[in-house]
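Extended Data, panel c. Modelled sequence:
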Amino acid sequence: MLVHSSVNEGMPARLYRSPCEIRRDMTIISKQIKEADEMLSVRNILVEMLSECARGDPERWIPELEELVADARASLDSLTRLKSALSLLSDELEESVCVIGRV
């Protein structure tokens, strides 16, 4: 949606996406967050891993645990980026709705 400039209000011409487009992107990101959250159950992963490793040498667990921690950190970083993207889309949607109300 193109909003024309307004010399009286000091608004430059801007191009806005429609609320439907923004909501579509928000839905996609929300689904990605939900999927990542469902896949990332550190407690379940630890219990499963420990039950498998319990039969063997505890020193064998260290590399496995380090890899698990690295994966959990990478997942957390990914979720943080998705949350940030969702927040930006929310701000964009609010701005678009305000502009539509003024047009």
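The mean pLDDT is 77. This feature is highlighted in the accompanying rendering.
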